[in-house]
Specification:
Order of helices and strands: HEHHEEHHHHHHEHEHEEHEHHEE
CATH architecture of the largest domain: 3-Layer(aba) Sandwich
Largest sheet: 7 strands, mixed
Strand order of the largest sheet: 6-5-4-7-8-10-9
CATH topology of the largest domain: Rossmann fold
CATH class of the largest domain: Alpha Beta
Strand content: 15-25%
Shape: globular
Number of strands: 10
CATH superfamily of the largest domain: Vaccinia Virus protein VP39
Length: 344
C-alpha cells in the first residue's frame, strides 16, 4: 500500500510541475516568488493558497530550490505519469471511478485555479453526486480508520436507556455504515446530520428502516442549540473528516462540548498533513467561496499536538490518537482522535 501511496504522490507532484510549466507560471531557469507565480498563472485569490501548498510540496520533494523567497526548478521537474492513476487507485482500494475523475480534474486544473470552472459542478456531471463526493473516502486507509472509530463507539456507555449519538458532517455515510454496524445490538438514538440536504436526504432513503435513526441539517458554524441539539444531550459525537471545515474551530468545538454530557465521547477522524494527490483534486473544495474572506492560513490540517491543545481548551481530554506514527497505516496522514468531555 505504501509503495502505491508514494507513487501516487510522485504522480501528483508531476501534475503540479506540469501545470506550472505549461502555463509558464514558473518556466525553467526562471526565479519567481509565490505571488509572482500565482499572478502569472492567473490564480483566483481564493485558490492562491492551493498553489502555495504546491510550491511547498515541490520544495519538500527537492524539485524546487529557494533563494530570498524566490523559487526555481532544481534539476529535471517530476513527470506527470497520469496513465498510472487507475493502477494506483486500485491498489489503494479506491472505487474504479476515482482515477478517471481525478484525470478529468487534472485536465481542467488551470481553469479551475482561475475560477473559469468550478470543481463541484464538474464532479457532479459524472454521476450520482453522493457516490461521486464519497468516492475519495472509499479506500483502505479510511476504511481502517472508520472500523477503528466504530470499535471505540461500541465501547461508549449510555447515560440512560439508549445510547444518544450525533454524527456531524456525515456526508456520503462512509463513517455512518461502520458505526451503525458496531452498534447493531445497542438501543440507540442516532442523529445523522450534514450541512447539505443532498446528503441528509440520501441517508434518509438509505437508512429509513434502521431503528432509532433521525435525519436533519446541522451547520458546524452555527449555534447547536438553535438547531435543535440540546445541551448535555449526547453520549457520543462522531465526525468523520469534517471538523477542518469549521470556520471557527474553537467555537465549533465548544458547541460540541456543550451538547455532550460530562464523560461523553467525541470520536473524529482528520488528516494531519497535506496529501499531494488531493492538492490536485478534492482540496480545491476547501477554498472559501468567492465572496467570503480569504483563508487565514495556508495550512488546511492540524498536527495531533495542535488538536490536543484545541480540545483541551474547550473542555475535552484527548485519550487516544490512532494509528501511531510508526504504524504503516499512518503513511496516509489520517488519524482517529478519541476525546471525552470533562467537567471544569
Amino acid at each position: 500500500m505504501n509503495i502505491a501511496l508514494n507513487e501516487l504522490e510522485h504522480v501528483s507532484l508531476g501534475v503540479m510541475a506540469q501545470v506550472l510549466l505549461h502555463t509558464q507560471a514558473l518556466p525553467l531557469q526562471v526565479w519567481r516568488s509565490a505571488g509572482q507565480i500565482n499572478q502569472a498563472l492567473g490564480t483566483a485569490p481564493r485558490h492562491a493558497w492551493i498553489v502555495r501548498r504546491w510550491l511547498a510540496a515541490l520544495s519538500r520533494a527537492g524539485a524546487l530550490c529557494e533563494d530570498a523567497e524566490r523559487l526555481a526548478w532544481q534539476g529535471t521537474p517530476p513527470k506527470a505519469a497520469v496513465e498510472n492513476l487507475p493502477r494506483l487507485y486500485a491498489e489503494l482500494g479506491f472505487p474504479t471511478s476515482m482515477a478517471p475523475l481525478h484525470s478529468q480534474v487534472i485536465d481542467c486544473l488551470p481553469g479551475l485555479l482561475r475560477d473559469q470552472l468550478a470543481l463541484a459542478p464538474l464532479l457532479l456531471q459524472t454521476g450520482d453526486p453522493v457516490a461521486v463526493l464519497g468516492a475519495y473516502q472509499h479506500n483502505l486507509f479510511t476504511t481502517a480508520i472508520n472500523q477503528a472509530l466504530a470499535a471505540r463507539a461500541a465501547e461508549v456507555s449510555a447515560h440512560g436507556d439508549r445510547l444518544r449519538v450525533l454524527e456531524l458532517g456525515a456526508g456520503a455515510a462512509c463513517t455512518t455504515h461502520a458505526v451503525l454496524a458496531a452498534l447493531q445490538a445497542r438501543k440507540k438514538s442516532y442523529r445523522f446530520t450534514d450541512i447539505s440536504s443532498l446528503f441528509s436526504g440520501a441517508a434518509q432513503r438509505q437508512f429509513r428502516l434502521e431503528p432509532g435513526m433521525h435525519f436533519g441539517l446541522l451547520d458546524l458554524d452555527r449555534d447547536f442549540a438553535q438547531q435543535g441539539v440540546e445541551a448535555r444531550s449526547q453520549d457520543l459525537v462522531v465526525a468523520g473528516n469534517v471538523l477542518h471545515n469549521a470556520r471557527d474551530l474553537p467555537r465549533s468545538l465548544g458547541q460540541i462540548r456543550a451538547c455532550l454530557r460530562d464523560g461523553g465521547s467525541l470520536l473524529f477522524s482528520e488528516s494531519i498533513a497535506d496529501n499531494p494527490a488531493m492538492l490536485t483534486f478534492m482540496h480545491l473544495l476547501l477554498s472559501p467561496p468567492a465572496n467570503a474572506p480569504l483563508r487565514g492560513t495556508d495550512e488546511a490540517f492540524m498536527t495531533p499536538d495542535a488538536w490536543g491543545q484545541a480540545l483541551q481548551s474547550r473542555g475535552f481530554q484527548l485519550l487516544e490518537v490512532w494509528p501511531a506514527a510508526t504504524d504503516p497505516l499512518a503513511a496516509a496522514g489520517q488519524r482517529l482522535f478519541h476525546a471525552i468531555g470533562v467537567s471544569r
